[in-house]
Amino acid sequence: MMSDYPSAKDQEKVKFAFDIFDFDGHGEVDMFYIGDLLRACDLNPSEKLVNTFGPPDRKGLKMMKVADFLPMYAAVKKDKNKGSYEDFIEVMKLYDKQEDGTMMLGELEYILSSLGEPMEKAQVATALADLAPEEDEDGLIPYDIFLKKLCGK
């Protein structure tokens, strides 16, 4: 047994998610859904990482079995570039002008729409509406509330 092979618990999680995406019950999932499937397994791969697995640009071109997917799951799970709550806090501190755990909501909006893997305007609006606390009269928000919701803490 390889050390980086998914644990029994992870294999169970993968199988559960895989079955959901196996729309016709033939034990196969369309590779078009690989990013969605990885996210359904509680992973958060970048689009760049998902694209390394060669997902087709439309449905119906290439199917995969759970055995094909497990190594992809393992690779994404051990990817070190996903960032943790602690990593994100350190980044937010760079924007914390008053060193009191707050930042300008506008700067958070800028970060989400411009840095790393930029999000679309509509995605940013949804993320802020769902995750960010109400800004105060100075346009500041406590960023740890946003990060805790984002990271599921």
Automatic annotation (TrEMBL):
Residue intervals of the EF-hand domain: 9-44, 83-118
SUPFAM superfamilies: EF-hand
Keyword annotations: Motor protein, Muscle protein, Myosin, Repeat
GO cellular component, one term: muscle myosin complex
Claim: Translocase is one of the keywords in the record: no
The organism's place on the tree of life at top rank: Eukaryota
GO molecular function, one term: calcium ion binding
Subunit structure: Myosin is a hexamer of 2 heavy chains and 4 light chains.
Protein name listed in UniProt: EF-hand domain-containing protein
Species of the source: Meganyctiphanes norvegica (Northern krill)
